[in-house]
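G.,

No rush on this.
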Amino acid sequence: MAEPWDDYIDAVGRALSLPIEDAWRPAIRANLEVSLKMAKLVDEFFLPDEIEPASVFTA
């Protein structure tokens, strides 16, 4: 049975001309799942429209 991410992994691999070995798929799936969880946390964090951007300090 195909995993939910398999079609996405195949499509991105083709789009980027990357060969994807079957042994890599579990690690790729795990990375995508963690990345999606982190993106959800950022997306759900409320920032009011009036918020000012952080200062940028350079040395």
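When you get to it, here's the other one too:
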Amino acid sequence: MTDEVQGGMEWVPRFGMLEVPADRAALIRGLFELAAFVADHPELPLPKVQADIWPRGEDFVAEVDEVNDVAAALGVTAGFACGGAHYRAVRRFGGVEVQSVAITRESMETLRAHMSYRDNVQPDEPMRAGGAR
């Protein structure tokens, strides 16, 4: 591989030159570099690899439409999860999980409210390296 950065036309193994925007080329290159790292270090545990495709819709209905588009591209059927709070499409490519999730505004507001307390709860003793107290 080459470390030379090119704008929009990035070299990646097997494909040669791709005519894609620079951000997509960087992601594709990173995926190849991760694969090379995994192949070069069989002594290490396998990493968990998950790719999230977040919808950009302005409301839940628009986000559901985007998740359905992702589901169609992945060749899967999207559906509701978490008691209807999430609308999700998931596919596994070997050890890689790709998902797209639309989350209702109510669910996000509940999570934000719940997480607003995170700095108010402190353990009696700080955690030490390795998780021991």
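Residues 22-40 form the longest helix (19 residues). The chain has a mean pLDDT of 85.

Enjoy the weekend,
O.
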